[in-house]
Amino acid sequence: MVPKLFCLVSSSDDLALLPALAEAGVDGFQVRDKSATTRELVELTRVVRGSVEMYDATVVVNDRVDVALAAGAAGVHLGADDLPVREARRIAPRLLIGATCRDREQVAAAAHDGADYAGFGPLFATQSKSGLPDPFGLGALAAAHGVLPLIGIGGIDAVRAGGARAAGAHGVAVIGGLWRQPDPLVAAKELVTAVA
Ligand SMILES: Cc1ncc(COP(=O)(O)OP(=O)(O)O)c(N)n1
Ligand SMILES: Cc1nc(C(=O)O)sc1CCOP(=O)(O)O
């Protein structure tokens, strides 16, 4: 089952909050730590798993199929520089696989190659990542809807999460809309309500 609300987690976040976030209804956690070594990423993934497993939340690892398998994560999220979805599906038939997509054609290709969902963005301007294309908004998401479950990403807050759902998104993924809020748990609850 594809989560409706992915919270992206790195080792610099407040990991002690993870059980409360999962209890509040955050049903997906993506381990994304660009500065971690492979071993640190495996350990972080195990910590995240252990923090949220009693709430049945889904844990995926960004970029790394090997780490997802080694750490017992449910899935992996793959971008353009990562192992191709087709190869990941071949070596990991049971993993949940997400693929970054920027238009309807990429979503169709990801579906053909065996992805379970598409991370679709950037929908709005983001402070969390540079080098992205200009944000393309909810119209592009609506146009790409119907091939795979779409997870909207980029500048998502609770209001925008509701808009993304109305435009056809299955769910959303967030960094700043949760971790950079004055009270991340309150923000998480608002996001959970918005994607319900
Ligand atoms: C849900 C979701 N969508 C898109 C991305 C971006 O992944 P990627 O293209 O691999 O870029 P990095 O996250 O590695 O910078 C994502 N992580 N999650
Ligand atoms: C990691 C990432 N990937 C994106 C993409 O569009 O591929 S946008 C993004 C950052 C999302 O962070 P925030 O919720 O703070 O905007």
Automatic annotation (TrEMBL):
Residues holding Mg(2+): D63, D82
Cofactor note (record): Binds 1 Mg(2+) ion per subunit.
Keyword Magnesium: yes
Residues bound to 2-[(2R,5Z)-2-carboxy-4-methylthiazol-5(2H)-ylidene]ethyl phosphate: T126, Q127, S128, G155
Annotated HAMAP family: TMP_synthase
Function: Condenses 4-methyl-5-(beta-hydroxyethyl)thiazole monophosphate (THZ-P) and 2-methyl-4-amino-5-hydroxymethyl pyrimidine pyrophosphate (HMP-PP) to form thiamine monophosphate (TMP).
Protein name from the UniProt record: Thiamine-phosphate synthase
Native source organism of the sequence: Nocardioides eburneus
Classification lineage: Bacteria, Bacillati, Actinomycetota, Actinomycetes, Propionibacteriales
